Amino acid sequence: MIKCKLVISIGCVLASATVFAALPHIFFFNTSKSLPVGLYVRIPGDEYEKGDYIVYEPDEGTKSLVRRYGWNDNPGTFLKIVGGVAGDKYSVEESTRFFTVGDKFIGIAYETDTKGHQLPQISGEFTVEEGQILPIGTDPRSFDGRYTGTIPITSIKAKVKPLLTK
């Protein structure tokens, strides 16, 4: 019963454009495959640990690529998980394209997307620097740190948690 009331309440808030416009930075709706599709809610805090969900603004080069390849017409923000923090090691192995953080295999850094578009390529071993985090997704084809490397903490707009997801 409580879950039902919560869903109805959230639905009413989302259905009301006036209310939703007044609260644009509390709720975030994810439609990408990088993380589960659904509604995420801002939580307090500006310190980031591995496993935290974050919303961040990608750099202009990344936004341009996303628009050019038709992944999103308005790539204002990305939703990812903090996969690495200052001092953590990560790598993309040149021959296998294996993307690892520490000793944990995250996925493959593909050369092209599913439509054949060339993806940015990084390879080698790296350390997350102070003031940076490494963003990762849970989908094997996530456009994340395996292609972009780290992002500045200053580009993070919110720490969030899943509220209603598939």
What does this structure look like?
- The structure is a single chain.
- Helix content is 20%, strand content 33%.
- The chain is an alpha+beta fold and 166 residues long.
- The chain has one domain: Umud Fragment, subunit A (Ribbon), CATH 2.10.109.10.
- Strand 5 (89-92) and strand 6 form a beta hairpin.
- Mean pLDDT is 87; it is low at 1-23.
Protein traits:
166 residues; alpha+beta; Umud Fragment, subunit A; seven-stranded antiparallel β-sheet; four-stranded antiparallel β-sheet; 4 helices; 33% strand; disordered N terminus
**How much helical structure, as a percent, in the residues?**
10-25%
N-to-C terminal Cα separation, in Å? 20 Å
Low-confidence stretches: 1-23
Largest sheet: 7 strands, antiparallel
* Strand fraction: 25-35%
CATH class: Mainly Beta
Give the total of beta strands. 11
Set out the fold topology.
Elements: H1 2-15, H2 17-22, E1 27-30, E2 38-43, E3 53-56, H3 60-68, E4 78-84, E5 89-92, E6 98-101, E7 104-108, E8 124-127, E9 132-136, H4 145-148, E10 151-152, E11 156-165
Antiparallel strand pairs: 1-2, 2-11, 3-4, 3-11, 4-9, 5-6, 5-8, 6-7, 9-10
Give a short synopsis of this structure.
This protein has 166 residues and is of the alpha+beta class. The protein is 20% helix and 33% strand.
